[in-house]
Structure formats: structure tokens, C-alpha cells
Design brief:
Order of helices and strands: HHHH
Largest sheet: none
Shape: rod-shaped
Number of strands: 0
Distance between the termini: 95 Å
């Protein structure tokens, strides 16, 4: 009886290890890590990287100039 239980535990352990090493488990794990990473990130302004691009430097300079001229009045 004891030998049968021990063998059953080894079979169960082998099955769990086999599932953990399967390609499907890897995909699920990667998806869970990606989801956790997205949830852990602070949600910032999604347009900020575009506005900080060099092509908008002229627009920022004009905005700064307008702000300085209004403050001088």
C-alpha cells in the first residue's frame, strides 16, 4: 500500500513538472508577466514622447516666447 502511494506521488510530481515545462505553460507565463508589467507601470501621458520629439522644438520655442512676452506686460 505504501509503495503504491509513493509511486502515485512520483507520477503526479512528474506530470506537474511536465506541464510546467510545456510550450503552452511558457506562453501563459509570458502573458502573465507582460500583463503584470503593464499593471505595474505608472500610466503617464501617452502623447508626451511625441511632443518631446525634436520636430516640435519650433513649437516649444514659440510657446516659450509667447509666455515670456505675456509675463513682461
Amino acid at each position: 500500500m505504501n509503495e503504491g502511494r509513493r509511486r502515485g506521488r512520483w507520477i503526479l510530481a512528474g506530470g506537474i513538472v511536465g506541464l510546467a515545462l510545456s510550450p503552452g505553460a511558457r506562453r501563459i507565463g509570458m502573458g502573465m508577466r507582460a500583463r503584470a508589467t503593464r499593471l505595474g507601470r505608472a500610466a503617464g501621458d501617452p502623447e508626451a514622447p511625441f511632443r518631446e520629439a525634436p520636430c516640435y522644438e519650433h513649437d516649444r520655442a514659440l510657446a516659450d516666447e509667447a509666455t515670456r512676452s505675456e509675463a513682461a506686460r
